Amino acid sequence: xxxxxxxxWKNYSEKNMISQFKESNxxxxxALRIRSFRLQLLITTIGLCAVLxxxxxxxxxxxxxxxxxxxxxxLNILTPQNFSTAIFVLIYSTIVVAVFSFYKFPVMLLRVLQxxxxxxxxxxxxxxxxPLNAPSGYIDLVDPFIGRFAYAGNYIDKDLFFSGHxxxxxxxxxxxxxxxxxxxxxxxxxxxxxFLLKQHVHYSIDILAAPLFALSCxxxxxxxxxxxxxxx
Length: 232
Fold this sequence. Notes:
By secondary structure, the protein is mostly helical. It has one domain (24-224). The protein contains ten helices and no strands. The chain has helices at residues 2-24, 28-31, 35-64, 73-76, 84-103, 106-129, 144-150, 164-175, 179-198, 204-224. Helix 8 packs parallel to helix 10. The two termini are 36 Å apart.
């Protein structure tokens, strides 16, 4: 009986969270009339722009310092192979699909951007605290967007702990509500993680830690959403 009640409460909570999103995301026109939404959107946009300006210089800094090389037992048994094209297609097709999925719900899209901003801050801190050199057998990941905007055309191979690609994809998976899309996003996350390891772009620990950081940001958002400042 107790298990049935817990199950009912869990189902109710999930449905309630979804209905909250859909009720508060009737349209962009209505959302933009809400002062809290406008303020949070403005702060988030400023934060993302600040990161875009700051991060190329940060990557130059971490590239200039010497880190450690981890003896990764998993990478040792994987012969390096270039999967740049497959990784690029998977990542950006997932992001495009996610944008179309979230765009109809402005509050949800705002929450995704806020979590991504927090995730980026955590990644900057973790890369700074954990200086690593590229793994043995490293093959450069060709990503025109990151190369242009994040790396500013510079060669960067020390932005390792934790994986930005895997954490972003897993964050998208967490926010998506439709079951069939969640399965696709999880599959995309798994494949990108496998390809990054096969290409020796990241250590195993970088890949394993990425979903945990994404999940932490998602949980923090759920806690913050109860606060009157964040509530819309």
